[in-house]
Every structure is written in structure tokens, then in C-alpha cells.
Amino acid sequence: MNIVVGVTGGIAAYKSVHLVRLLIKAGHEVTVIPTEDALRFVGLPTWEAISRHPVTTSVHDDVARVRHVALGQNADLVIVAPATANTIARMTAGIADDLLGTTLLATEAPVLIAPAMHAEMWRHPATQANVATLRSRGVHIVGPAVGELAGGDSGPGRMVEPDDIAEAALALLAGGDLAGVQVAVSAGGTREPIDPVRFLGNRSSGRQGVALAAEAAARGAQVTLVAANISRDVLAAARHPRVEIVPVGSAAELGAAMADAAAAADVVVMAAAVADYRPIEVASHKLTKEGERLSTIELVENPDIVAGLAAARRAGQTIVAFAAETPSADGGEEEMLARARRKQRRKGVDVLVVNEVGWERGFEVADNEVRVIGPDGVVVATASGSKSQVAAEIWNSLLAVRPLL
Ligand code: C5P
């Protein structure tokens, strides 16, 4: 997303260099707009180098692109850090005689300010009235903190630390009910190599897992998507600043990537179709009819990845597995759910999402129908529709059964 960071003339300006770095590291485009005064504390080359964008204080640069309003119009969030007493007063009055002033007037994006000034200036009724006015207009205010101020004084007025400003900013951008939640999702189907050109695979397209990752990110979560052999077209739906994609091929690679991702995750969703078996030996050359016998491939069982993750889970971590089931002709629905519950217990997972599959259902198609079995074995949700709609319902039901996410 596009974030504008306004920097005004306080000693805390140097801390905003770190703030800009944090925002860029989180995957955002950052444009810095210093005031003339801010440049006395930290110079223009520093802001250009750290943000990798041209920096100016003036409304008269880059006039052809109407920069004085374009930056504000294109911003998803505007941060002012540090926000001096003078800047707060100017914001309140709507003064627009520099680029930061015009940007603040032109933007409809959320605005977050981190005040920084001496305690007396903060306590002054003028400042307090200005802050109250800004608040009433919807401006978000983080801090100031109480602590040591420039010149050895102490009291309220210190700018809060860059990490806290970044956290407040990212939460604002996320805005959704999964803001701040760390998610690890596996998707797609593994391929177990036989020789350099052949593999044992399955028909999973990865659509449902990709939809789950995209939905979580859209609702504010930070997502690692471990993608097993998913086509570019399908994977495109997961492109989001908060989704990190880790491509993998075999079950062993997927297991290692998920173990890494799960270490920091609040929720682990194993939507991938993992091969239960792999060839005991992988030939280093292409097997031929004349040479080896291709009619028999000896297999060895793969470890159950989700069971391993569930056994190793941290307190408070939620583990979700999927079960693709074909209802048997005689037992029908109930028999299918009983089988799913046995699977849930065997694997030790909190939630099991059951989807009916068949030649024409589940795999490779756009629509899906699922049942979500909660921690006590009860079906907590049934969802059908596009895989995005189903993903939204699955997250809703996870939030319902695990309100502490
Ligand atoms: O037993 P079944 O293959 O039906 O279980 C499906 C669930 O278990 C899925 O969540 C899948 O990702 C996971 N699984 C696994 N490791 C395996 C096989 C399946 O984590 N080796």
C-alpha cells in the first residue's frame, strides 16, 4: 500500500528513519514529506535513500503531476511523525503552504500522528484544543509517551518508539478482524518425484488454499502461503503485501516449509493435498521401457505433516486440517462425517474442514462445498459457493470457535 510519512521539525525526526524502514520492510511503498524545518534534523539524501523515492518539501516541484494533491489522493495512510505542536496547530487550521500541508488537506486516507514536543507545549490549552479537534475529525493519535525529553527535561511529550508507530499504522491499514494474526497456509498438491521427468501427483489446483490465504490477508492477517505446484494464474489471487509465498514441490519440502512457518503462526491451515506415499527411490535418469521395469514403483509412507504440527503446537495455536472425502454409496453423509471425526482425532487437529470430492466435485473446479467440524466434533458451519465465499465462511467459523485468535 502507499504510505506517506510526514516528518516535521523535532529532534525525534531521526527516529522516523527507522519507522520508514519498518514500513518498507512490511511491504509498503513509502513517500517521505519532510517540512523545511525537519531537514535541519535529518537531511534530504537520507530520506531519499531510505524511502527510494524522490523527496521534496515544496509544492512547486513536479507540478506537471500535480504532486501537491496527488500524494494525498493516492495514499492509503498518512503518518506524521514526529508531529510538533506547530504542525498540529497548522493541521487544525488547514494551513497548506508546503507539500505536507497540501497532502494532508487532499487526502481521504486515515491519518495517524505521533506528537513530540516539550511537556509544557503538550499541556498548553492551545495544543490540547487542537488535538481534541483533530481527534473529532477522525485523526488517529499515538502517544506522546512520558519520558526523557530533549534538554534533560522529562514528562509527557516524547514521541512513541518507531516500532509502536509502525504497529499502529499496520493495524490501521489492516482494519479487519484478523489484524495482527499470523497465519500459515499450505495449498496445492505435492509431487513426489519418480525420475527427472515423472512424478506421483494429484488433482489439487490450490484454489481453496489460495482463497483462504487471500481472505486472511484482506482481513488483516500476516500470511505465509506454502504453495505446492500451483499455477501462476491461481497463485495470482494471493498477491498481497501481507502474503509471503513459499513455493515447494514434494511433501518433504512442504513439511519443512510449514514447520518454519508454523513456528511464528497463530493459525496453521493445511489445505494442501499431500501425497501419502513417495517412491522409495528417485532415479537419477529417466526410466525407460527397455531398461527398468516401469510397471512397479515401490513406495514408502510420508510422515503426516499436520499431525506432526499439531503434536508440536504452542499453547494457543490453532491447527486446521482439510479432508477431501468421497461419500460412500451405502453410508452416505453420516458415515462420511464419522470418518472425518475419526481423522480429526487421529491427527490431533482443532478444526477439520471436510469437502466432498469426486470426479466432478472439489478439485480443479471454481465452486466448493464444505463442512467445518469444530474442536468438540460438532459441525459448526456448512458453506458452499465460490472458493472465496467458502474461504470467508471458514475464517468466520474459525473466529467463532476460537475467539482468542
Ligand atoms: O488423511 P488425509 O490425507 O485425508 O488428511 C488430509 C489432511 O491431512 C490435510 O489437511 C492434509 O494437508 C494433511 N496431510 C498431511 N500430511 C500427509 C497427508 C495429509 O499433513 N502426509
Outline:
This protein is of the alpha/beta class. It has 14 helices and 19 strands.
Largest sheet: 8 strands, mixed
**DSSP strand (E) fraction?**
15-25%
Number of discrete domains:
2
Q: Which outline best applies? A: elongated
Main β-sheet, spatial strand arrangement: 12-11-8-13-16-17-18-19
- DSSP summary, beta strand count: 19
CATH fold naming of the largest domain: Rossmann fold
Q: What is the name of the CATH class of the largest domain?
A: Alpha Beta
- Could you give the distance between the termini? 25 Å
Mean pLDDT: 91
Low-confidence stretches: none
Q: Supply the helix-strand structural class.
A: alpha/beta
Return Rg in Å.
Answer: 27 Å
- Say which CATH homologous superfamily of the largest domain is assigned: CoaB-like
